[in-house]
Automatic annotation (TrEMBL):
Organism lineage string: Bacteria, Pseudomonadati, Pseudomonadota, Betaproteobacteria, Candidatus Accumulibacter
Gene3D superfamilies (UniProt xref): 1.10.287.1260, 2.30.30.60, 3.30.70.100, Jelly Rolls
Main subcellular location: membrane
Cellular component aspect of the GO annotation: plasma membrane
Name listed for the protein in its UniProt record: Small-conductance mechanosensitive channel
CDD domains the UniProt entry points to: CAP_ED
Keyword Transcription regulation included in the entry's annotation: no
Provenance organism: Candidatus Accumulibacter phosphatis
Stated family: Belongs to the MscS (TC 1.A.23) family.
Job description of the protein: Mechanosensitive channel that participates in the regulation of osmotic pressure changes within the cell, opening in response to stretch forces in the membrane lipid bilayer, without the need for other proteins. Contributes to normal resistance to hypoosmotic shock. Forms an ion channel of 1.0 nanosiemens conductance with a slight preference for anions.
Annotated Cyclic nucleotide-binding domain residues: 353-473
Amino acid sequence: MTEVMQRIWSYFWLPETKYVIAAVVTLALLSLRLLPKERRRVGGTVAAFGLCLCGQLFGALLEALDYSRLAVMVHEIFVIGSGMALFRLVAIFVFRVILPRFGMVVVRIAEDIIVLVVYAVFIMGRLHIVGFDPSSLLTTSAVITAVLAFSMQDTLGNLLAGVALQLDNSLRTGDWIRIDDITGRVAQIRWRQTTIRTRNGDVVVIPNSQLMRGKFIVFGRTDITLWPWRRWVWFNVTYESSPTLVIQKIEATISSAEIPNVAREPRPTCVLMEFGPGYGRYALRYWMLDPQPDDPTDSTVRVHIFAALKRAGMQLAVPEQSLHITKENEAYRESLHRREIERRMVDLRKLELFAGLQEEELRTISERMVHAPFACGDVIFHQGDAPHWLYLLAAGEAEVWMDFADHSKRLFRTIHAGGTFGEKGVLTGEARRASVIARTDVVCYRLDQATVEEVIRSRPEIAEAVAEILARREAEMDAFIRQFSNASSDQAVSQPKAGMLAMIKNFLGL
């Protein structure tokens, strides 16, 4: 019995066996630690290697029992299997650990081809060692290959197309593509098919040969950060609005607004595409940075377009209807209008700027207030703009930002619902000293310069109360500016009440 065990061990434990086992254990431990996502693949390979060792031990047992011919066959089969397991672990470690550290990424299909070539060379070499002539195998395999190629044309076409797609770098995992009516991200490129995951979570499997024969559009790649995708947002505006003004207003709004996922460059453009029945059909073309949130970004852009058109008094086109208006409806609308005016007057009385106005003056202002909504991120006005409007913030929040000589931009204050801004420019003609940006979706009412001037001219003593308020706000702004500029503390640029009152009177000609 002892002699049999010795024969088994001597036939099983070859001089190179310990080195092979040591290499497999080392590569497996390193791969498991450095590549947690490959644990299942590494574990399966190690298990296969263990089975091959058991198979070699079984071959050694057959040799000890004098089944030499069968023993050689079994032993070589499992030696080849263990060698392939070792080469697979080497490939995992090289292609997943070593090469990426040097910035080299080999596509999966190319990696598989390299491993297959290594397998083939190893098998031929091993067969030559045991005295088998590989040339006869090659001749036989060539005939088999020809038969298989004829019977599996479609499958081979998919295989070769998959190799070509990855080797010529025309398609990569992670690319955003469109093929026919399917839009999504490439999840995997296999030998036979390419898997695409749509935004809805659907998984679409497309044969590689179909990709090679047809056309597909690549509009985004993960390794190219600046690959903007042009989007079209359509809207209709009635002919009462000048196309030139519509285009200018929309382009200015979208270009200046802080809209996530919308590129600054290339700049958005608005074009009149066609004339419809009672409306002009426009398209806003902008560039999207990330293709994933396409519909939410389009929705945000539409919100800004809607708010811009409302501020400009431009009407979106709707289907025309003929309605019979009765006197009761007219009376009802008049009642709603009166209630709206009364509500505005109540809100105006709460504002410090209008606290000293009389009933009729408040009514005049309420009737001339213009509804002006802004979407979050909209620029209400820029620093340096000419003053045309005084704003009353009815709902939401807005931020006041100041630009400094060193090209920095700092937040001065936040305006809450019930506040006013833009007063000084309307009353003195001075250009805007800061930019105001909508922090949230806001509802504003704005008064034109003519209305404010009319109220103050009718009762000049109002100018004194307004001057006091403006002087105080100017002092706060100048103190903020001095914190971030080189001006000394004694170089006050704000106007006292008397100086502010003189500026108002001079501008209005009082």
